[in-house]
Write a structure and sequence with these properties.
GO terms for molecular function: aminoacyltransferase activity. The protein is of the alpha+beta class and 377 residues long. The protein contains 12 helices and 15 strands.
Amino acid sequence: MVLTVAPISPAEHLQFIRTRRSVSFLQTPAWGRVKTEWRSESLGWYDDGRLVGAGLVLHRPVPRLERFTLAYLPEGPTIDWTGELDAWLDPLAAYLIARGAFAIRLVPPVRTNTWTAAQVKEGIADPAVARLTQVPGEPADPVGARVTDWLTGAGWLPQNPEDGFGAGQPQFKYELPLAGRTEDDVLRGMNQLWRRNIKKAAKEGVEVTVAGDAAGRELKAFHDLYVHTAERDRFTPRPLPYFETMITELSSEDPDRVRLYLARHRGDLVAATLGIRVGAHAWYAYGASSTEKREVRGSNACQWEMIKDALAAGCGVYDLRGITPTLAADDPHVGLIQFKVGTGGRAVRYVGEWDLPLRPVIYRAFSWWMARRRSGH
């Protein structure tokens, strides 16, 4: 198989995505317009004139060397990862180096390992277990192992940090399978605390609505609560214009692509979540909750409403996004994985982020600059 890579229009890219059951929202043309600090382009893979693959490339210029860029494909590209990878990735490298890329960063949408909720809970309960990778899980995915081996042999460099979170996409995620299941099936799969909290929210009169003006006043209410959550939980919040752009651009591709859920108790906003859907894959992208009235369980009510909507849309998976692989009881992140494990889903390890240096001297300089930036120098 001889493939060629060439630019495609956003419309062609979007049409290709619609032929697939699901593609990451980070690989939609609209996402390139959300990431305003990057330059974006859509690329297509052609086999004898037929479009067989596509990818969104985000270009980040090098400080003081703007004509050279890091070419980043978050959770992409959308290609046949079970096939001969040199046939797919060699023409990508040739195209990008000719246009000034000093390196390519890929995040293949390919899993390597899976752990059931029960296996994760056993790991959390075992004081001898500090990391998810120490827990016996399901059989390893042969495709993930093959992709990892191929990337290593072809000179790609893994960029996966020890804690699972880096500058890019998390390697470990938590997913709730939905295919072939009903609402009752999903509820039965949740732990007792989750079921109790969903019932508690309903009994307390928590009402969850989908925002009608998702880019207007209700988004501002979400953002105010999100900033409050960031101050409480000690993370840096994104500014309001980022969410305004995200909702505007994603909605322009599909009116059902993004939804803002608001949970209120007697008129008070107690929780809010932002959900995204592409085809049969739904994501919990952002969440916020008030410190007051936590006992009415607004966050569980929002999650349950999103899960029910994902089921109604025919989704095969509800994606709760990143977790850290640390299971030690004294780790501040273990509470997050315990919250997500309560849904009854599964922890998943993906291949992760990989870099291919195309211009090694510039790549080393960029890596040094990024390391200094992260350390605050």
